[in-house]
Design goal:
This protein is of the alpha/beta class. It has a single domain (about 5-105, about 120-155), classed as 3-Layer(aba) Sandwich (Rossmann fold), CATH 3.40.50. The chain is about 35% helix and about 15% strand. The chain is built from 8 helices and 6 strands, in the order βαβααβαβαβαβαα. A 6-stranded parallel sheet has the order 3-2-1-4-5-6, with helices on both faces.
Amino acid sequence: MEKRRAIFFDRDNTLNQDPLGYIGDWRQICPMPHARPIVQRALQAGYLLFLITNQSGVGRGYFSIEAVRACNRRLEELLGGGQIFTEIGIATGLDAVVDPCRKPSPKFLKKMCARHGLVPENCWVVGDGAADMAMARRSGARGILVHGEGTVLDPDDEKACLGRYSNLDSAWKLIGKCDGLARIAD
């Protein structure tokens, strides 16, 4: 039986450029360089793709959950159209006490694994921050830090981080190499 694989992407500063800090308008969505081809290659390789995003701007009253959903729809449109992500997790609370799905909590990842017949060891977390790598470690997934120059990781979280890259293309090559997909990792 073939292993099901998945990638859990962070949204802002990972797939989407975020020079503003809080994005609540779909017109501000602008994919990172290489995001579209990387996402398309991952889909072609049979990965389930998930989006997990902390959006405390909702909890702070900066914008609505509907605005976040509109941004996510726009991102999917720009990454190739249709439904790119199998499911999207949006944490709107300011901390994990208020919102138990807020990264670094592994709750969303574990829930998706149970729902879609995945095991965390066959999953990747690709994100730009320490919370993403902590989520990878706490769930048993593998992590890749992208666009996170200067990000300081807890020593335990550093173990879950298999690579630090300045672009998604390099992250995809590592995923392909580790998962034995050399043909499509090029």
